[in-house]
Structures are given as structure tokens and as C-alpha cells.
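tmp note - LuxR family transcriptional regulator
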Amino acid sequence: MENLRVREEFEGLSHAVQNAPSVYDALRILEVAYGIDSSTYHLALTVADVVDTPYVRTTYRDAWVARYLVRGYAKVDPILREGLIRQLPFDWREVEVPSAAHDFLHDAQEHGVGANGYSIPIVDKKRRALLSLNSRKPASEWSKMVQEYHQEWLDLAFLIHRKAVFELHGEHDPIPQLGPREKECLHWAALGKTNDEIAEILGLSMHTTQRYLMSARHKLGAASTTSATALAIQLRLINPYGSTQDSGS
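out:
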């Protein structure tokens, strides 16, 4: 009976997060439910080692957010940097803090940011997202919370991520799901290779190469291979200036 009650409570919380009017409201709902002090959601686009975070929602105090932006702290924030390259959730205490970030962390705590936190990376197509939860609770109490709720937080992180994508794009997510071979073919097409040359490079038949390029064009809604490669670069699905591994990942 206890497990059923807990599951029903979490389902109610999930429903509330899904139906929140905005990502910011969803963060607030999560905070109230778990007694968390602050939270931040980043949505990034990545190609190779280039990171762009065009969408951020946070419940930190306005004064700290303004200071963070003015001082360019995103360049030295070790949690953000780790979160956008890691695959698995992590406690902030696991992160090795470089000397360049010591002043930043001291400044953060001076402005009310808690010493404890937990971050959940989300990998979605060429996007990376990061949900970070921050607490001023004692370390021992925070550790118990992480142990008890980390799986629930992971589930909620994906709900918030889907809400963020919808908040940005509505029903029409502009980033289609291209297969590895489709991206490889577009990569070489973007570098000016002919279909014959692409087929030889990838060890494919001409027919198969043409089929992959046609499929990619259809998914991107492009009338030609040239426009498909241009759109794929714009959406950061391929990086013709990097390796094929960058484009195919």
C-alpha cells in the first residue's frame, strides 16, 4: 500500500509538471515538491566541442543571474561545462573544480547559491540539455535526498525537457531524426563530393547512396541535396568542418 501511495503521488507530480504553463513554472513545482532551493534548465546545441546555450530557465535570484551574465561566468562554471559533456547524472561533489573557477564558486555562495547540487544531462539528437538542482541543505541531508529521489528527478527532467522543446517550437520540432548513414552522406555532400565519390568513400552502392540522400532530403523537407546540406548545417546535425564521427554521432 505504501508503494502504491508513493507511486500515485509521483504520478500526480508528473502530471502537474507536464501541465505547468511554462518551464519556469514546472521548475517551481519540482522545487516545492522536494524542498529544493533553486533549479536551472539549459538547452544547448552542440557540434564537436562547440557549445551554444540559447535557452535557459532558472529560479536563481535575479541579482545572481544578472551577475552571472555580466561576468561571463558560463565560461568558467564547472557544473555547466561538465553537464554538457557528461552522459550520466552527477552530484556536484564529483566534479573536479579547476583553480580558475574558485572565485566563481565563492561568489556564487556569497549570492545565495547552495554548496550542494545534482545535475541531470539529457542527450536528444544534436541537442544537449541539463537540469540542475541546487540546495543549501547540509551535505548529509542532501545525500539522503539524492539517494531517495534521483530516479524521480531523472523522469521529471525528461518531462521538463519535452516541455522546453515544445515551448520553443510547438508541435513542429525543427530537428528531424536522421540516421547515421544519412548524416554521413550529407556530410560528404556538403564537402562537394559527388554521389559516386560518396558511395566509394562509404563503401556503398550508388543506389543506396542516392536512397540515403533522398531520405535525408524528405526528412528535412528540402527540394535538393544542396538545400538539405545547408539546412543540416544550420540545425547542427552535421559539421562538415569536423570529422565524419562528429557528423554521424
